[in-house]
From TrEMBL, chains A, B:
One GO biological process term: allantoin metabolic process
Pfam families: OHCU_decarbox (PF09349)
Membrane spanning residue stretches: none
Pathway: Purine metabolism; urate degradation; (S)-allantoin from urate: step 3/3
Record organism: Rousettus aegyptiacus (Egyptian fruit bat)
PANTHER family xrefs: 2-OXO-4-HYDROXY-4-CARBOXY-5-UREIDOIMIDAZOLINE DECARBOXYLASE-RELATED
Protein purpose: Catalyzes the stereoselective decarboxylation of 2-oxo-4-hydroxy-4-carboxy-5-ureidoimidazoline (OHCU) to (S)-allantoin.
Domain named Oxo-4-hydroxy-4-carboxy-5-ureidoimidazoline decarboxylase: residues: 7-163
Recorded catalytic activity of this chain's protein: 5-hydroxy-2-oxo-4-ureido-2,5-dihydro-1H-imidazole-5-carboxylate + H(+) = (S)-allantoin + CO2
Broad enzyme group: lyase
Protein name: 2-oxo-4-hydroxy-4-carboxy-5-ureidoimidazoline decarboxylase
């Protein structure tokens, strides 16, 4: 898909295509449409990131709360968004043993209790074995720093999803 | 549902219950959860409204773009959210004749072309016969004023949906 096609979309089409660039937050794509035309794929990705930065803190927390747990019950039940399912499966999180799942569930619960949002990680750039260590590490970070880190992961996930949609994997990584 | 129950919800439960107070924008409920505890139903409604006011203009436009057309193809196809279906049907918009539907479709298209978001009206407080006149009137408003008017309708819809959920219709109207 070239950028001319993207720029010619009405907002309904744009949200249909880019509505899950930010997980379960189609309103972000609906907002980014205001910024068209886009110069290229990078410029589009930048506008998604920039919009997240303009949100008040509760809005940024809200975006994080729309994300599923990593290796959580939704992965087990198959109720993840198609993108999350692919990303979490690709990172090997669907093949964890019961003990590893339990360990992650405990860490996820601690993280949610501490920060008030779920642990978000660009799973495709990680692997299942590294996730518990990273979660344990971030669990010890100060809340303000962790909000920034988590929002950075949302942006990375968004860039990867945009690269998939625009067929320009390398350019956006 | 009393306010104590609301205040005891974790963010997942809160979004499950209040996720469509703002049409197809569960992230708004996810953000409002940051403001708990809530004093009462009115306080909760105020926080939904206040959050919408804190959004940058593209975000407010994005919220509007998540709304369906009034008496549009989604009402015909039955793909509206349950709340919108009830509200549009209750206002008599599901019983329009072909001529009236066509007239509204034309006005909706003009409105979208002019403002870049769909015409939003708290349909439950209106009736089908009054909708085309109101749409034609708002179509002539300056864009900045119309954004404020439309956002005011989003807030009214949200208050009515909250009243339904909390079982306190009169208190919130």
């Amino acid at each position: 898909m070239d950028i001319g096609t993207v720029n010619s979309m009405d907002f309904g089409e744009f949200v249909d295509v880019f509505g899950n660039v930010v997980e379960r937050c189609p309103v972000v794509a609906a907002a980014v449409w205001s910024q068209r035309p886009f110069r290229d794929a990078d410029d589009l990705a930048e506008h998604f990131s920039a919009f997240l930065d303009t949100l008040p803190v509760p809005g940024q927390e809200g975006v994080l709360r729309c994300h599923p747990d990593l290796a959580g019950s939704e992965l087990q039940r198959g109720t993840l968004s198609a993108e999350s399912q692919r990303e979490q499966s690709g990172a090997g999180l669907a093949r964890l043993g019961a003990g590893e799942r339990l360990r992650l569930a405990e860490l996820n619960a601690q993280y949610r209790a501490r920060f008030g949002f779920p642990f978000v990680l660009a799973a495709r750039r990680s692997d299942a074995a590294a996730v518990p260590g990273e979660l344990a590490r971030r669990l010890r970070c100060p809340p303000e720093q962790e909000l920034r880190t988590a929002l950075g992961e949302v942006k990375k996930i968004g860039r990867l999803r945009l690269a998939d949609l625009l067929g320009r994997d390398r350019a956006l990584r």
